[in-house]
Amino acid sequence: MKRRNALKNITVAVGGSLVLPATLFSSCQSDDYQPLFFTKKDLVLLNEMGETILPETSDSPGAKVLKIANFMDVYVADCYKAEQQKIIQEGLIKFQKDCQEKVEKSFLKMTTLEKHEWLVVLDKSARDSETTHYFRLLKSLVLLSYFTAKDGATKALRYLPIPGKFEGNYPFQQGDKAWALG
After folding, report:
1. What is the pLDDT of residues 25-50, one digit of tens each?
2. Are 75 and 84 in contact (CB under 8 A)?
3. Least C-beta-crowded within 10 Å: which of 45, 61, 124, 168?
4. Alpha-carbon torsion 36, 37, 40, 43, what sign?
5. CB 134 within 8 Å of CB 90
6. Rounded distance between C-alpha atoms, residue 67 and residue 150, angstroms
7. Contact criterion met (CB below 8 Å) for 182 and 160
8. Taking residues 55-80, what's their average pLDDT?
9. What are the φ and ψ backbone dihedral angles of 181, each rounded to 5 degrees?
């Protein structure tokens, strides 16, 4: 009887150790996600910005589908310094204000082309800025969030879960996807 209890306890422990991490990692993807740093409206805006930067294609999901804003929220809350958080918070307010003043509508109500053009102009001004621009931080967060997500890494990149030997001079054709190694 003791052996049966021991086996039962081992099964529960092993099963729990396999299920718990999956639950924790999938919590960012749930629909009832509670923001830590951003507001729920900010998350909608960030997902839309991400979708404009990394739209859905025939062979890879878009940023909105991956709910990158949830990851961005956790990452900013846990990993960014207070001054970086302040730059992002003030930047989002400025972003929404500039959309209303210069385009005369919110980013969410713009057409896909208008969103793209607006972000291109914003990216250029961020590159020309002498100080840390909020859009540079947000764009790098979008890319980090997208390519660390399983579907972003495995579908948008060429994914090799078990890499082979090192080949420093591997043939690369123009237009090929970049590599993601597991």
Report:
1. 455 555 688 999 999 999 999 999 99
2. no
3. 168
4. negative
5. yes
6. 12
7. yes
8. 94
9. -105, 140
- Are 92 and 174 spatial neighbours (Cβ–Cβ below 8 Å)? no
Span 108-131, pLDDT tens digits: 999 999 999 999 999 999 999 999
CA distance 107 to 48: 8
128 three-class SS: helix
Q: Nearest to residue 153, comparing CAs of 122, 178, 180, 113?
A: 180
Which pair of structure tokens corresponds to residue 66?
């991956």
Within 10 Å of residue 159's Cβ, how many Cβ atoms? 14
> What distance lies between CA 53 and its chain's CA centroid?
11
Range 161-168, long-range pairs (CB < 8 A, 24+ positions): none
Let me know if 155 is exposed, middle or buried by CB neighbors in 10 A (0-12, 13-18, 19+).
Answer: middle
Taking the C-alpha atoms of residue 70 and residue 68, their distance in angstroms, rounded to an integer, is 5
* The two structure tokens encoding residue 141: 């967060």
Whether 15 shows a pLDDT value over 90: the answer reads: no
